[in-house]
Design brief:
By secondary structure, the protein is an alpha+beta fold. It contains seven helices and nine strands, in the order H-E-E-E-E-E-H-H-E-E-E-E-H-H-H-H. The strands form three sheets. A three-stranded antiparallel sheet has the order 1-2-5. A three-stranded antiparallel sheet has the order 3-4-9, with no helix packed on it. The chain has a three-stranded antiparallel sheet with strand order 6-7-8.
Length: 271
């Protein structure tokens, strides 16, 4: 099969799906890397991760294109290598003269006035199957779900009071002990002495139970208060961080771009 730019594009895309680097012998190398999630639209949009493709000038030859061409067309490896290198040599002449070579389904390989090469991918280029279905999330459409810190603190305070009330309602009730046989002279000496000794024992047990309950209540309240403080501080820090990021995006967009994009991407954006 004769080599042309459509076949070259098809081979490159298939190889890039399984490899992080694919060389064009004598011209350079296509490099694919994962870009993590990032912010855009002045910090109001979260973009999902994707796989970025760029071009790096060098003289490496990994032989991937020649191997694929040889296997697909059932030709000798030497012949396949010669076909690939001859086509890339012709493509380089076209690139230096017209400053652009279009790879259908991938993008455009371009040359500057000094014949330095860089790659501009198509917007709909898909070389990251794992990211299928992932879409940007706009924080503007979720503002209605945000709650003021004061409301969150009120909810925490209500939770603490509810927990304390539940602990108080679960305290064991001490039932009154009535001596058998009633009270008074008719019950005899033994009956008269027993009621006097039993209330003392019950009073001691009740005091110990109340002391344990109060200690447990204080411990639980202390942990609930610590949790509430940590929650409020975390929310405040998140709000401050988001506010600082939005402010920087407004007054220093170049600084934000330097954080979100690398040098290659910034160079592409300039063009």
């Amino acid at each position: 099969m004769p080599m042309d730019v459509d076949l070259m594009s098809k081979m490159l895309k298939e190889l890039i799906l399984d490899n992080d680097k694919v060389a064009l012998p004598g011209l350079g190398t296509f490099v694919a890397e994962i870009v993590p999630s990032s912010f855009s639209d002045r910090g109001y949009t979260i973009n999902p991760p994707y796989r970025k493709l760029y071009f790096r000038e060098n003289s490496d030859d990994d032989g991937l294109l020649a191997k694929m061409y040889s296997a697909s067309n059932d030709v000798d490896g030497y012949v396949a290598d010669r076909v690939i290198k001859d086509f890339i040599s012709e493509m380089r002449e076209v690139l230096n003269k017209h400053k652009v070579v279009v790879f259908p389904g991938l993008g455009r390989l371009r040359a500057t006035k000094e014949n330095n090469y860089f790659f501009v991918p198509d917007e709909d280029m898909d070389i990251y199957p794992e990211g299928f279905g992932l879409e940007p999330v706009s924080l503007k459409t979720h503002q209605g779900n945000w709650r003021p810190v004061s409301e969150i603190f009120e909810d925490v305070e209500i939770s603490v009071k509810t927990a304390s009330a539940q602990e108080e309602s679960t305290e064991p009730a001490v039932a009154a002990v009535v001596p058998e046989g009633g009270c008074g002279p008719e019950t005899g000496t033994d009956s008269a002495t027993e009621p006097k000794s039993e209330p003392k024992s019950e009073s001691g047990t009740e005091t110990e139970t109340e002391t344990e309950t109060e200690t447990e209540k204080k411990r639980n309240n202390r942990w609930l208060k610590i949790t509430a403080v940590v929650l409020v501080v975390t929310v405040l820090l998140c709000i401050v961080f988001l506010g600082v990021f939005v402010l920087l995006a407004d007054i220093a967009p170049d600084f934000i771009d330097s954080i979100l994009y690398n040098e290659a991407e910034l160079e592409i954006l300039k063009y």
